[in-house]
Amino acid sequence: MKILMMMLASLVLAACGSTAPFNYTLSPPVSTGSTNAPGKQLGPYALADVTVPPEADLASLVVQQTDGRVLVLSNDLWTAPLSSHLRTALSLELTTRLGMPPVQNLASGTGDANVTRIQVDVQRFDMVPGQYVAIHALWRIRFAGSNKVLTCFTRVQQPVAIGVSALVTGQQKNTQLLSAQIAESLISRADPAGAQCTSN
User: Fold this and answer.
1) Mean pLDDT along residues 91-112
2) Residue-range definition of the domain harbouring residue 79
3) Which of 63, 81, 143, 189 could form a disulfide with 148 if both were Cys (CB 3.0 to 4.6 A apart)?
4) In angstroms, what is the C-alpha Rg of the chain?
5) Domains contained in the chain, number
6) Sign (positive or negative) of CA dihedral 26, 186, 158, 137
7) Which pTM does this prediction carry?
8) Are 189 and 150 in contact (CB under 8 A)?
């Protein structure tokens, strides 16, 4: 019994002395993007829920090791589960680049035929410490007022130094590059530079 009490006491002390979690965001305070066009020329648009691989859809950062193992960083957290957080980050970036935010939070939202719809399926969200971070995303735009649908595949990658902050900064850049391609297509209604696309 005495041994058990000593073990419990050591666990409590370890918990009390544990490092407080760090929270990270994919949206830096000042975006490197620029407003390319006023929103009134573009028309309303909506960004659907973003999908990510299930194993990465956590509030904790998930990193890959070179031997194939995956490590969940319990003390390094996104501000929300990754799919929700990535949608917010893309929304903020699109707002900066297009001059108006998406309308999914309004009552008219995605059910309005006059609203252009964007879907993003992130198929890889890789973070390999000291090596690289990458996003592979399949995304689709259904343009309002026409039958045009543009489907594109984006692969973006950044080399990174050792450390969690380097991983986050790299994925911030990848998120900005992905949003830049989506914004370019929303404005031009054509394939953006750096993506593989098909349209009908």
Assistant:
1) 79
2) 24-199
3) 143
4) 20
5) 1
6) positive
7) 0.84
8) yes
